[in-house]
Design a protein that fits this description.
CutC-like, alpha/beta, two-stranded antiparallel ribbon, TIM Barrel, 8 helices, globular
Length: about 250
């Protein structure tokens, strides 16, 4: 039996369905993927859970920006962990750092306590931590299941050396999931070197809005973003990645 994880990061029902059709065997559900993802709504989670019979891991991230959170923000995050646990999420994707770039172990212990059987992924807060190998060992001690990483670079191919080192030193004590620019060709290049069997991708394409009337000169947020472009997972992109994994991972 072939064993791999192909996780699609999705922020809409349409993307979740496309990812499932393409062969993703796990979903990370978020909102606002265009800014790196934030915590999704309960309504979105419920619809995706109803329509997609694969494990759903929910991103817990209260805002855009760094991963050092105030006490109030942390309280919101813990509340969200409890809510999604009760809603039936398979896992949470989460991470908090201290000002010095170390992992906030106290917070992660609280997450472990409240998760009550859910899988826990330390997300790409890991990619901006001060000491990745030390942080990995702390994550293992805390009972975290997965680290999502691009190897502390913007693109996983640039972080290949660190990823390879992490996979080797993890020695199956924690799953190292590769993210950050993953697609079929990237998996084909990375797998023979890193031997990582878990990959995280959005498989997105940019589609035009259905709006025919478009008001010029008005922005609802970041002015550089096009209000009339929709990011959405493409079934074929996920399918192509799955085909590569089926060839390589035995």
């Amino acid at each position: 039996m072939k064993k791999y994880i192909l996780e699609a990061c999705v922020d809409s029902v349409e993307s979740a369905i496309a990812a499932l059709k393409g062969g993703a065997n796990r979903l990370e559900l978020c909102s606002s993927l265009i800014i790196g993802g934030t915590t999704p709504s309960i309504g979105l989670f419920r619809q995706v859970k109803e329509l997609c019979n694969v494990p759903i891991h929910v991103l817990i991230r209260p805002r855009y920006g760094d991963f050092h959170y105030t006490e109030k923000e942390q309280q919101v995050m813990i509340a969200d962990v409890e809510i999604f646990q009760k809603e039936g999420a398979s896992g949470v994707v989460i991470g908090v750092l201290n000002p010095d770039g170390s992992l906030n172990e106290q917070f992660m212990r609280e997450v472990k306590k409240r998760a009550k059987g859910m899988s826990i992924t330390l997300h790409r807060a890991f990619d901006v931590c001060a000491n990745p190998l030390e942080t990995m060992e702390k994550a293992i001690e805390l009972g975290i299941d997965t680290i999502l990483t691009s190897g502390q670079r913007n693109h996983c191919l640039e972080g290949m050396n660190l990823i390879t080192d992490l996979v080797k030193k993890a020695a199956n004590r924690i799953d190292i999931m590769i993210g950050g620019g993953v697609n079929a060709s990237v998996i084909k290049e990375l797998y023979p070197i890193t031997h990582a069997t878990s990959y995280h991708m959005s498989g997105k394409s940019i589609k035009p809005s259905g709006m025919t009337y478009r008001k010029e000169g008005i922005s609802m947020g970041v002015a550089s973003l096009d209000e009339y472009s929709i990011w959405q997972t493409e079934e074929e992109n996920i399918k192509a990645a799955k085909e590569i994994l089926e060839q390589y991972v035995i």
